[in-house]
Amino acid sequence: MSSSAVDVHLDLLESEFKALSACLIDSRLDALLAAGATLQRLSVELAEMAKGAGQMRLKSSPQLLRIKALAAGIANVRENLLRQLAFVGRALEIVVPATRDKSTYAGGGVYGQPVQQSGAFSVLSA
Known about the structure:
The chain is built from four helices and no strands. It has helices spanning 3-26, 29-53, 55-58, 62-95. The relative contact order is 0.10.
């Protein structure tokens, strides 16, 4: 695999990453989903290229710096998505208060401790 093919693929990844970041800033959810899927596909293809090209050549190349910059940027986007998730979750609790106290799993106990009965079926009669 030539280094120019890896460079072209890195250019595609960087442009898709910029599109993903713009979608997150503009809150365009449909485009965010599509850009995320494309970024994931391109990342997998780059990993396959790196295996084919030999990772030893990428260890000291300028391509590695671009890959590290992309990884740092993706981590930043992930943090921003988590912030958005917390924001939306908090807004949902304010708008629909019934979602505040509901949980999917029984909780509060120490790991391995018996689960306390919720009271839903405290009395059974035949």
